[in-house]
Model the fold of this input.
Amino acid sequence: MPDGSSNSPPAPSCKSFARRLWRRIFALWKFKALLTLAITTLFCIPYFLLGNFPIFPVHDLPSTWIDRKIGFHPYAWVWIYQSLYPLLNALPWLADRRADLLRYAKGFALLSIVCFTVYAVFPTRSPKPMVEHARGMYAVLRWYDTPLNALPSLHAGLCVYTLAFGWRLFRGKLPAWLGALFVAWGGLILYGTLATKEHYLVDIVSGALIAIIADAIVWHGHFSDHDSPQPYTPSKNPRPRHTPDHADTKIRDSSGRISQAGRK
Done:
């Protein structure tokens, strides 16, 4: 009968979790800085080239009833949409093992290459309408973002991929309320992507699916053993106890003298 015990340790308190964050941030900080610079450079160059200079004819996708139902609310949702970037840049800095960072970079590259390939061979236009005299953060978004690169959505893909990486790092080590907060944050980012009309629904679904597949590929056969304790399993063939060799057995004879038995 079960005794009510569990192999998984309880989630840490907020104070202990916060103390670990500082140690994680400064671990391998030089390697993280170089990796951040490399990923940003290698990502931005093809993204903006493909988004502004299409190779093949540009396609317009049909809107679904969900796209039409959500409507266009750029000023209400642009800050939520933009909040992906602090999450995207901060979460990899919480890794404290080089192997996890390299795995993250490989998945990031896989996700980006698949999306860039689609952008190159099948460029699609974003559904955002023309807005005269855009202001505030929405004006910033219109200034730097490209008119293309809609399908699949890298905004949705990077959101899902980053949260999946966070789950790999902190599985079983995150306070439950904080994990729920991150999931809700990701959901709002995806909704904001539709509400700002940066993407269609099909873009969101396809980008998220590619992110899940990329995460599964780079982590296949691996798990966060650094953070997940392994239950004890006794060995099937335990090593026998050491017994004194027959040649080394000492015997006391009737006269009280000690002799070595078995030695020839």
User: Anything to note?
Assistant: The CA atoms of residues 139 and 205 lie 26 Å apart.
